[in-house]
Amino acid sequence: MWRNVQESLLASLERVLTGVAAFLPSLLAMTLALLLSALLAWMIRLVLLRTLRGLKFDTRLEKWGFAGLVGISPGKSPSLLVCRIVSWVVILFGLLLALLAVEDKLVSHLLIRLFQYLPRLLVALAVVFFGSLLARFLARGVLVGAVNMQIQSARLISQVMKWLLLIITYAMALDHLGIGGDIVKIAFALLFGGVVLALALAVGMGSRDLVRRTLETQDKTPPPQTDETLRHL
Amino acid sequence: MAEVEDLPADESARLEQLGSAEIIIGLPSHNHSSTIAGIVRSVREGLREFFAGKRAVIVNTDSGSTDGTVQQVAELPDEEGVALLQTIVPVRDPVMPYHGIPGKSEGLRLTLRIARQLGARVCIMLSPDLTSITPRSIHELGAPVLEQGFDFVVPLYARHRLDGAINNCILRPLVRTLYGKHLRQPMGGEYAFSSALLQPYLDHNLWGTDLARFGTDIWTTTQALCGPFKLCQVRLGTKSHAPSATVPDLGTTLVQVLGSLFEDMSRNAAFWQRVRGSQPIPILGDLVENAPPVVSLDPHKLVESFRLGLRNLYDVWSLVLPPVTLLELNRASTAAPESLTLPDDLWCRVVFDFALAYRLRTMNRKHLLGAFLPLYLGWLGSFALQTENATNAQSEVRLEKLCQTYETQKPYLISRWRSPDRFNP
């Protein structure tokens, strides 16, 4: 009987050791993938940071109208933000590779889902990027034009314009990603419709006097050219 | 033989028949039926009276008038010794409203080719909306070239101290600082040049560009300033225009004029960075100067426009102007409206920084130049307040001081132009 116990123990030990021996290469591969991805991420970060600083990326971004990015960036540097995002993407891929070395079925499934989703994500990012650019460009144009038309609340008009465009942009991006489903559309329609309705009501009913007074205080005459004979050139 | 391929067949044949001419009068037009016939008559009278015996050709280049301008010119009777050529010049991508004459650039190019083919000694370019052109004006513009050997003649009009402020606070001092020549009205609208400038103008590589379209009067002047040419200014009395329905608002004018000026400045950077100091340009002519028409404006309204700009455009200006300039502008705006003063050195640096931002494309150029308008109105308000009780002569002294300050600030411009990224607090 003792012999049977001994054989059974040896057999289970052999199975465990075989299992460990079978798992070891995967573990090693996983560790290696993680280490290599971390190293690669560090190197890419280093090169990218130098390149972006050489290109004066932070200054250019500010000039293009993305001054807001400076505030949310680590160390007030959008270059650092970009580098961190890129290095984390590389590490994430390393992690996926590492998991693939251990458990291929689940990870393959995850990867397929991810790659199916990736184009949508990229399009949504492009929508946000170009939408933000357009919003800032138009807001600046409206601001300059409104100031030159002597409109006192030029900044308010410009900000309203910018945020309406940004809301449309984000709503489009979320809709494209399939996040929030119909809630985003409904919320957007409610918000946009509400703003328009409020303005219509303000003009038509309750704030009639206020709107009239506001409009009266706006001096919309073009820049002073008080005399017909005055030529600026 | 026909060098000028854009001319209609019959006009081209007339050109060949003419063979040669000493004087060419270029007259672009676009819906100027109210003034064009009068100008042609004045020109003919001037040629008859002052340049008798010299063969002359009037070249009217019309850019698609719809008000009968072409017919008016066509119906004018022929005159011995003064041929009248007329053609329609196609204007590519016309931009309206425009501060100048649409098709002026295309008209100038055609006139230059005709002048070259006929071997002209002098070419006089006129504005078709002027009501103040007299036979004498033709003599004043043409004689310095034909009789005294000058190559480029610009007019000097008698103007009220507040009239032509863009010229006074930007064009005149900037052109003087950059090119080292005292031209009081570099963009006079009318000018004359000798045959020595024909080829350099025709060879210029900017035909068809925005600079050629919007800045004809600027680049023709600066081209003459950059070369070994003799320049002079002639007194032409007061200037009066026919009322026009197509005059754009001040903002559009400023965008087009400053855009052309800054573009031209970038093109000539290698030249003007070597220029040091400045020299006067001879002033000729003895036309009796009538008192210029008095113009009036409300300085307080201008000051308010400047303050509105400062309140709203501070973020935009901060992309263009260094912090110390913004601080000084802020300080100036806190003064009482009746005592706003923009110091000359501050104003110069503002203009230089905008020129630099234009070159570097710090932001969309239309936005950039649009953001300059409140600053310009601030300067005009400040100048109007400072010279409220001054005579035109006293204002002229004040403008001379501004020009000198521009010159003293030129090292700042050169330094920033060469190293725009250098720390500049």
Describe the protein's architecture and organization:
The complex is a heterodimer of chains A (233) and B (425). Chain A folds into 2 domains: 84 residues, no CATH class; 91 residues, no CATH class. In chain A, helix 1 runs antiparallel to helix 4, helix 4 runs antiparallel to helix 5 and helix 5 runs antiparallel to helix 6. The N and C termini of chain A lie far apart (115 Å). Chain A is mainly alpha-helical. Chain A is built from 8 helices and no strands. The radius of gyration of chain A is 30 Å and the shape is elongated. Chain B is of the alpha/beta class and 425 residues long. Chain B has 2 domains: 276 residues, Spore Coat Polysaccharide Biosynthesis Protein SpsA, Chain A; 120 residues, no CATH class. In chain B, 50% of the residues lie in helices and 12% in strands. Chain B is built from 18 helices and 10 strands. Chain B has an 8-stranded mixed sheet with strand order 3-2-1-4-7-5-8-10, sandwiched between helices. A two-stranded parallel ribbon of chain B has the order 6-9. In chain B, strand 2, helix 3 and strand 3 form a beta-alpha-beta unit. About 1% of the residues of chain B have low confidence. The chains are: A mainly alpha (233), B alpha/beta (425). Chains A and B meet through helix 5 of A and helix 6, helix 10, helix 12, helix 15 and helix 16 of B.
